Amino acid sequence: MTTDKRALQTALLEWYTENKRDLPWRKTKNPYYIWVSEVMLQQTQVDTVIPYYERFITRFPTMHDLARAPEEEVLKAWEGLGYYSRARNLQQGVREVVEKYGARIPDDHEQLLKVKGVGPYTAGAIMSIAYNRAVPAVDGNVMRVAARLFRIAEDIAKAKTRRLIENVIAEYIPEDGASDFNQAVMELGALICKPKNPRCEVCPLAFCCRAKAAGEQELYPVKTRKAGKKSLHYAVAVVCDEMGRVLIRKRPDDGLLAGLWEFPMVLLESGENGAEQVSAYFEQTYGCRPSLTPTETTLTHVFSHLTWRLDVFLGRVGAEDVVFKSARDRLETKEDLKRYAFSAPHQKIRRLFLDQ
Fold this sequence. Notes:
The protein has about 350 residues and is of the alpha+beta class. The chain has two domains: about 5-220, Hypothetical protein, domain 2 (Endonuclease III, domain 1), CATH 1.10.340.30; about 230-355, Nucleoside Triphosphate Pyrophosphohydrolase (Alpha-Beta Complex), CATH 3.90.79. The protein is about 40% helix and about 15% strand. The chain has helices spanning about 5-20, 30-40, 45-60, 65-70, 70-80, 85-100, 110-115, 120-130, 140-150, 160-170, 180-190, 210-215, 275-285, 345-355, and strands spanning about 230-240, 245-250, 260, 265-270, 290-300, 305-315, 330. The strands form two sheets. The protein has a four-stranded mixed β-sheet, sandwiched between helices. The protein has a three-stranded antiparallel β-sheet with strand order 3-2-7, with no helix packed on it. Helix 1 packs across helix 11, helix 2 (about 30-40) runs antiparallel to helix 6 (about 85-100) and helix 9 crosses helix 11 (about 180-190). It is elongated. The mean pLDDT is about 95.
């Protein structure tokens, strides 16, 4: 089966014109706004991103605004989106563009790839959508479409397969229509060429899809299975003092959920008593033993590579009992807690026990 380039381009772009979703970042060619949207859209659903994008752009309307902002404020604006390293890398990249390029995002592909936090996909999206350059932007949707369309049997989890697909897609990008073409392929993957039960009956490219012609569209793309998720069990302590202030702590500056705030929590080994471990932790860390009350609340939070099970305890300490050994620990009023960026599982705990 041969693929006619002009026929593919025409069918795809006509479909996109008639069916594309009305999304806020499609109403601009501002490369900064497109950069923000593409970073937010990585590993996050479109409907979830829209309100975050609009609030973020309102709060940080220019790269200078984002570059000057304290990291804590940026993380707070990102709170709930997850994968917080995206926010940090975005801010660091924007600061680099402000300092090195006078707040003008490079329109040279190789130069753009050197900016902190800008990988091949983000660079391709900015180059094609903002600058209309014929550069591929290959995300998960595009890899799935390409794998089925051209019946590519290579493992898409491998870097060499991404490069192969980038090269294939690059051959079909119209020189004067890169912006719409790349967005059209992404949109096709999101709306029609879905991971399961692809809607081949209404696909504009069904006429040239090699996997469909072979009746094998469900077999593509080929991807190695990930290892099973690791599971960790924690006891979490929501502890208040006599003045109603709540004890919180800041996570380390690197690693999972770096720099976010949380309620003290203790990793439990199999068979360990949560209350006993929390009490021992508080005595060692803060020099006091809170009076603890177990709750019936156990939360489960699933990350991409592991699962947390969180047993929640409520506790009380005297106003003068807590001895802080680190600036990463604080006692804050319930109202002031809203200023801090918490990880998603601890946001749930905060809402359940404090936001009342």
